[in-house]
Amino acid sequence: MITQLWFVLVMLGVVAAARGVGDRTGVPFSILLTLAGLVIGFLPGPTMQLDPEIVLVLVLPPLLYSTARSSSLLAIRANMRPIVSLSVVLVLLTSFAVGALVSLVVPGMPLAVGMVLGAAVAPPDPVAALSVGRRAGMPPRLSTLIAGEGLLNDASALTTYQVAVAAAVGGTFSWADASGRFALAVVGGVAVGTVVALTIRTARPVLTDPLIGNAVSLAAPFVAYLLAEEIHSSGVLAVVIAGLLVGHDAGRGETGASRLQTGAVWQLVAFLLEGFVFLLIGQQLPDVLRGLQDHDTASVAAAAAVTVGAVLVIRPLWLLFTQWVPSWLHARLGSGPSERLGGRELIALSWAGTRGVISLAAVSAVPLTVDSGEPFPHRDLLVFCTYMVVLVTLVGQGLTFAPLLRKLGLRANAAEAEQLRDEARLATVKAGLATVDDLLAQKEIGPPLADALRASLHARAKRYRARIETLAVSDDGEIKRSPGYETSLAARRAIIDAQQRELLRWRDAGRLPDSSLRILRRELDHEERTLPDR
After folding, report:
1. Quick one: which of 34, 124, 37 has its CA closest to 395?
2. I need a labelling partner for 116 at 20 to 30 A (CA). Which of 278, 426, 483, 513 fits?
3. Which region among 54-63, 315-324, 410-419, 427-436 has the lowest average model confidence (pLDDT)?
4. How many Cβ atoms sit within 10 Å of the Cβ of residue 161?
5. Cα separation of 322 and 325, whole Å?
6. How far apart are the C-alpha atoms of 90 and 98, rounded to whole Å?
7. First-residue to last-residue Cα distance in the chain
């Protein structure tokens, strides 16, 4: 136990170090961790083994829920057609294409076995692409499409995977059975996710304690996943739907303290799980290579080549096809010209199909034997091909995605987004001033307090208007702050630092107990969080 604990602590240190190096160099820490895992995998000593059940039940639900909570339900709904095209149609197309190609180049491989591989490598994992894209200032619509695809594609891929495994193990395949399973997975997943989200919303008035609210939030993805799996529907889709609805509804009935604490908890959970997952990916290579000892080299090379090639080629071809659909068909489908992607967006979206731990977990969960008791055909080859896809897309596409975005000139208008936020802040100030007038008219507050509140709100409004005027003249979309505003920020930070030091002096002199120090420092911490990043 002590040795295992030391190993986990060392891995945690590697995760933290990779995050620090990534922040300084701009290289996504997911890629750094994968490369570090490759090195650790070949070193003597203990390594972590990929347990597909742990990944699918304990790791995947909280990761999906965390991403869904921070996603925009309205943005996903506005881009639902292209997201469904990527997360359902493209997944099915990739599964069939990879399955057919691999079964052709590997002698004796049944189509159902090839389909197992195709379903495993079909769903992109957007973590690396999004982390690179956000750092590079990727436009919001591309971020929405990549995130929406990553949230919904796991359900369609894993359902296809389950059908393919059943056909490969039992030796029979029924289109009617496959269609029924898929429909049940979708309908049941949506229903369970909605029920879980509505239950949380109903319970929020009594979840005033931030700790209880956090406990419920951490339990939510597992409840949604397990309930959906109990009725043989998509647990993945249930988690995504629950996370989207809970995140969309977070402003209603939830205290500010709960939102702050829940957000911080989920940031930590996502950071740790993602870190260990990508480190785990790299460490699997030695085991994967050992499984190929009895396979023909030519078949291994051919299978890996067509699998990686198909994954890289089918995505851009499908994206091009969807944009070349005649205008009359776009109109009949209800999509206007504004929903169509430009050439630069197509190239960027084509290169954002990085694969990750879901693919490895799925292929590692393939049964060892079929119903007849014989070994599952070509199982080790499936694992190797999946690993090659993950490695090529995660490292290759992940490292080149940011340079590609810069080359294409795809960059969000940061000044416009910040200007919109300041206009919203100004609207909240106006709402606050109206509330002060109402309270004064109802004689709930007196004129002196009303004047003080108005003065504070007017000062804030003046600051927002000055920022809006500065941002409105930005030509390149970059956020430019006036020297006076920068001086004001520096002064406010200096004041907060001085207040923090004074509280510590009081505590060290015995004039302030630690319990009171923590309360007062938390007040200053919240004030500091309202300041823009340096």
Report:
1. 34
2. 278
3. 410-419
4. 26
5. 6
6. 12
7. 43
Helices 256-283 and 29-42: crossing angle in degrees, nearest 10, is 40
Question: Which residue bears the tokens 């397990």?
Answer: 226
Q: Which amino acid is at 335?
A: S
Backbone angles phi, psi at 133, to 5 degrees: -65, -40
Section 198-204 average pLDDT: 89
For 496, residues 6+ apart whose C-beta sits below 8 A from its C-beta are 524, 527, 528
Burial (CB < 10 A; 0-12, 13-18, 19+), residue 445, is middle
User: Can you say how many angstroms the Cα of residue 421 is from the centroid of all Cα atoms in its chain?
Assistant: 23
pTM over 0.70: yes
| Tokens matching residue 59 | 């790791």
pLDDT tens digit sequence for 13-38: 999 999 899 888 878 888 888 889 88
The residue behind tokens 């894993």 is 158
Residue 410 half-sphere exposure toward CB, CA atoms < 13 A: 26
Alpha-carbon dihedral sign for residues 477, 483, 485, 489:
positive
> Where does residue 230 rank: exposed (0-12), middle (13-18), buried (19+ CB within 10 A)?
exposed
Residue 201 has pLDDT above 70, yes or no: yes
Q: Quote the CA–CA distance of 456 and 429 in Å, as a whole number.
A: 10
Distances (CA, A) of 388 to 119, 140, 311, 354: 15, 30, 11, 12
Q: What pLDDT is stored for residue 333 in this prediction?
A: 44
Sign of the CA dihedral running 220, 226, 230, 233: positive
Secondary structure of 140-172 in the HEC alphabet? HHHHHHHHHHHHHHHHHHHHHHHHHHHHHHHCC
**Residue 409 CB neighbours (<10 A):** 7
Beta pairing partners, 369: 375
pLDDT at 450: 92
With bands split at pLDDT 50, 70 and 90, how would you rate the model's confidence at 196? very high
Residues 6+ apart with CB under 8 A from 515: none
Length of the chain (residues): 534
Cα 468 from Cα 497, distance rounded (Å): 28
Q: Taking all residues of the chain, what is their mean pLDDT, rounded to a whole number?
A: 85
Q: Which residues pair with 375 in a beta bridge?
A: 369
| Contact by Cβ (8 Å): 87, 149 | yes
Gap between the Cα atoms of 56 and 363, Å rounded: 12
Q: For residue 217, give the nearest of 206, 205, 207 by alpha carbon.
A: 207
Structure tokens at 465: 């208007």
Residue in this structure with the two tokens 């796991």, named with its chain if needed:
154
Q: What percent of the chain has pLDDT over 90?
A: 30
For residue 337, the 8-state DSSP code is G
**Residues in contact with 311: Cβ distance below 8 Å, sequence separation at least 6, in sequence order:** 94, 98, 121, 353, 355, 389, 393
